[in-house]
């Protein structure tokens, strides 16, 4: 029952992101009296909500439909939505990708959801600061692993908070379940990868993900 409760809490947490996007674009549509302009984005977010539910159901059944995918193409497919999200929050966005023909065996939707979750965590970490906000993704290859480094220059975390981060339901937010990071970590590890967080208070945070490359 504990695992089911964690998954249910995770669904609620992850659905907040697309719901917030949909709410924002509906408000823009009302203000501009131009629903058609935002229709595609709203539909995409609704589809993402459905994918989130399906993915968490897969996790609850200990199954994840995986396919051989290009890590480079997965990252490139996130560029436009990440640019838009950063633009909405006055954040400078950059992505520096290491090209490779090698593939990873992953559930693409889950990997994308993890990346978007990390972006929104970074945006929240900026708080009310409105100067020099930066969010950067860098990828690298080492020892047959595809590394993804997600870096922001937000407020960072003190060491005592960093030690607690990742434990179910621990959160520094006024609202929220704290389930996001534990589930992200679990999903990456279920893919045979690693998930690590480095953070310095008042400097910023870097999340380092790795996924095994298929070499044969």
TrEMBL record:
GO molecular function: ATP binding; phosphorelay sensor kinase activity
Signal peptide interval: none
Source species taxonomy: Bacteria, Bacillati, Bacillota, Bacilli, Bacillales
Keyword entries, A-Z: ATP-binding, Kinase, Nucleotide-binding, Phosphoprotein, Transferase, Two-component regulatory system
Transmembrane regions listed in the UniProt entry: none
EC number(s) recorded for this UniProt protein: 2.7.13.3
Chain ranges of the Histidine kinase domain: 10-215
Keyword Nucleotide-binding among UniProt keywords: yes
Transferase found in the keyword field: yes
Species in which this protein is naturally found: Alkalihalobacillus trypoxylicola
SUPFAM superfamilies listed in its UniProt record: ATPase domain of HSP90 chaperone/DNA topoisomerase II/histidine kinase (SSF55874), Homodimeric domain of signal transducing histidine kinase (SSF47384)
Protein's name in the database: histidine kinase
Top EC group: transferase
The reaction(s) this protein catalyses: ATP + protein L-histidine = ADP + protein N-phospho-L-histidine
Pfam families assigned: HATPase_c, HisKA
